[in-house]
Structures are given as C-alpha cells and as structure tokens.
Design goal:
Blueprint (H helix, E strand, L loop, with lengths): L7 H18 L5 E6 L4 H12 L4 E8 L14 E8 L10 E3 L13 E3 L2 E7 L11 E4 L1 E3 L3 E3 L19 H11 L5 E4 L6 H8 L3 E4 L4 H13 L16 H5 L13 E8 L2 E9 L2 H15 L18 E7 L15 E2 L9 E4 L5 E6 L4 E5 H9 L1
Parallel strand pairs: 2-9, 10-11
Antiparallel strand pairs: 1-3, 2-3, 4-8, 5-6, 6-7, 12-13, 13-16, 14-15, 14-17, 17-18
The chain binds S-adenosylmethionine (SAM).
S-adenosylmethionine binds next to loops.
Length: 381
C-alpha cells in the first residue's frame, strides 16, 4: 500500500534533507536523476539547483509515455519530468542512440549497410550525383535527445509485476547506460518495484535499492531472485512481528504462524487443488480498526473499511516452492499469483504435487510460509 499524501512544503523539506544526504555519498563520477510527477517536480528543481549546483544541471528530460488517454477539460497529461544533474564535470556520460523510427519505419534489410558510425542507408548513392560523388548516407540511429518516448509497462508485459508505480525497464536502462559504466554502483532510494536494481544487475552494475514499504522490498527481492542476482537484504527499519520472514531470503523450517491462513488441499483430477479458504492478519485488523475508529469521530466520514469473511482481499501475493530441496526459496513461476488493480488473488491453485511450501504476502508486506505437510496433518486431525 503506497499513498502520495504529503503537503507540498512538508514534502519539500523532507526531500531537501534526503537530497543533501544523497549528494554526500554520490561519487564525483556519478549523476542523479530525480523523477517526480507534475505536482511537485518544478518545485523540486529549485532544491536541486541549490544542492547540486546550477552548473551541474544536465537535462530536464521529458518522459512521454506514448499511451492513449484523453481529457476533455485540458490536454491529456502524458509526460513526467526527470531532472538530471551531474555531481561534477568528471561524471560519466555515455552517448545513447536510438532507432529513428519515424524516418525508417519500413525498410528493406538488403538496403541497410554499416560503417564505423553504425547502420545506414544511401540517401544519395555514390557516383549518381556530380555534386556529391561519394554519396550521402542516412543513419538509422539518432542521438537520444531530451524527449524520451518510452511506453509504460503494459499489462501483458513479461516484466510486469503489478507494483502500482512500476516503471519500464527501458527507461532505467537508458539512464543507467548513459550515466554509469560496468561495475559502478547504481542506487535507487525509492525503489518500488525494484526495476532499477533489476536493470542494473542485467547491465553488470552493482546496485543498492531502498524502500520504506515491505511490499516493495519483497517485490524487489523476488525480482532479483528470479534474475539470479546475488544480494543481501541488510536492514529493515520497522519492527513488526514478522520481520524475520521478510528479512531472511533463506529459510530452513516452516513458519509457525500458519494460524493466519486456513488452507485446504484436495485430490483433483490426478492432481491437487490447494485453496486458501481464509486469511487473517491481526496486525492489519488492528490497523484497519484504528482507522475506522478515527474515521468515526471525523465530521466528514469516509466509508469504513470492512474486512470480508475470508479476508482474501488482504493478500497481495501468493507463491509456491515445489522444489523443497534447497534452503533458498525457489518460486514456481507458473503458480505465482498477485493482485492487480482490478482483481484479487485467485486463492485456488492446481498443483501436480501435494508436497510444497506456500508463501502468502499481505498488502503491507508481511509474509507467512506454510508447508503442505502441516496443512495435510492439520486436515487429518
Ligand atoms: C513512485 S514509487 C517508486 C517507483 C519505482 N521506480 C518503481 O518502478 O516502482 C516511490 C516509492 O518510494 C517509497 N517510499 C516512500 N517514502 C519513502 C521513504 N521515506 N523512504 C524510502 N522509500 C519511500 C514507496 O514505498 C514507493 O515504493
């Protein structure tokens, strides 16, 4: 659960301190890209000028999402602004190129040639025009400018992990390739879906990813495990009862906190049907009760939050490990189930085996792991 609910001045004060801290640890060869939406970005630029220096300002990048969307009262808001500052004149900058699609959308491959500058077609062939006997080349790739047309992550995309603010890998790839070299450290202090760490890893950079949200940490962790990245989860600030579960990517024995979920396993057409019949989280219940109680005393009341009988809507993600062989959690990707903006988790799964561990993560990122053998033993009682 992530909400942007700051007042502007509080937010800017808060951001100011973080930017100063980031500057302290930023290498002289490094750069910072600040990505905020249209509510606050232009105010934050004033802070950036002060902290990083106007002389180190490199670009105001317009990221145009290239998606549909209309507004009948104004022009549709279809871009974000990213402020790019270098730490110093020694900052790494690798020129980026992109295909000039508008110019070369359909082109016969036999007409494409290549030289040291890249692929090209002949605009004027050699020896066909006296004024330019060597001909004129038209290169397929152009230098990237400060307006970037990169689509948002579409619902069917392989990279999609259903983290609400998830940014496309292509966006981070351009930033990371432009402003770092292999083995440099790339940090994202508001990492969300973990896209920066995942792309940094793919591009052979080292990475640091921080987030206040336990779901963001779990999502990032799962993404990095899938990408076979080597990493540690070093510290989690909040101290709640399930901390050890999210902190520890290894697990040796199953959690004793299985009371939080009531699960059944039944034979089903030569396979097994595993159903989460009920889910309960004392921590979430207490948070929701306290919200409802506060809300009841307000003059303008919002509708109370009511937890359903089965509590399934409190679950953010479900994973299965059917390997049971290692100490590292290995998620069976075919069985992974996550909420998306419209639908809850499925809560029913068909498995070829009744020997598995199931991991349930709730909407604030707390996790429980339950062994099928414990479920079966419990059902036999
Ligand atoms: C806009 S999202 C990040 C988007 C990210 N690039 C992605 O692809 O998902 C901002 C993130 O900042 C995190 N966040 C908010 N306040 C924070 C804080 N004080 N410290 C660290 N992370 C914070 C939120 O949990 C959220 O995941």
């Amino acid at each position: 659960m992530y909400a942007d609910n700051w007042q502007k001045h509080d937010y800017l004060n808060w951001l100011y301190k973080r930017l100063i801290a980031i500057k302290e640890i930023l290498s002289e060869k490094g750069s910072i890209y600040l990505h905020l939406d249209w509510h606050i970005g232009h105010y934050a630029k004033i802070l950036m000028d002060e902290i990083f220096g106007e002389e180190n300002f490199a670009n105001e990048i317009i990221w145009n999402y290239v998606s549909g969307g209309i507004s009948k009262t104004c022009f549709a808001k279809k871009h974000d602004t990213i402020y790019f500052y270098k730490k110093s004149s020694n900052a790494v900058f690798n020129i980026q190129k992109e295909r000039n699609i508008k110019k070369f959308s359909k082109i016969n491959p036999s007409k494409i040639f290549e030289d040291e500058k890249g692929q090209f077609i002949w605009y004027i062939r050699p020896n066909t025009n006296n004024k330019v006997p060597n001909g004129v080349k038209s290169y397929l790739d152009k230098y990237v400018q400060d307006v970037w047309e990169i689509p948002i992550v579409n619902p069917q995309a392989k990279e999609r992990i259903n983290y609400s603010t998830q940014k496309p890998e292509a966006l981070l790839q351009r930033i990371i390739e432009a402003s770092s070299n292999e083995n440099m450290i790339v940090a994202d202090f508001f990492s969300g879906s973990g896209v920066t760490a995942a792309v940094a890893h793919k591009l052979n950079r080292k990475f640091i990813a921080c987030d206040i949200g336990r779901n963001a940490i779990a999502a990032t962790r799962d993404r990095l495990v899938k990408n076979n990245a080597d990493f540690d989860i070093l510290k989690i600030q909040s101290k709640t009862e399930n901390e050890h579960i999210i902190k520890n990517n290894n697990f040796n024995n199953c959690s004793k906190e299985k009371d939080n979920a009531f699960i059944t396993i039944k034979p089903y057409k030569n396979q097994f049907l595993c159903t989460i019949e009920k889910y309960a989280s004392p921590y979430l219940k207490q948070k929701i009760d306290s919200y409802n109680n506060k809300n009841a005393t307000r003059k303008i009341k919002k509708p109370p939050i009511i937890i359903s009988d089965n509590g399934i809507e409190l679950i953010e993600a479900v994973q299965f490990d059917t390997t049971l062989s290692k100490n590292i959690w290995t998620s069976n990707l075919d069985l992974e189930d996550r909420t998306n903006s419209k639908e809850q988790i499925k809560a029913s799964y068909i498995l070829a085996t009744d020997k598995f561990n199931i991991k349930i993560r709730n909407i604030v990122g707390n996790e429980i792991i339950i062994c099928s053998k414990d479920i079966i033993a419990h059902m036999k009682k």
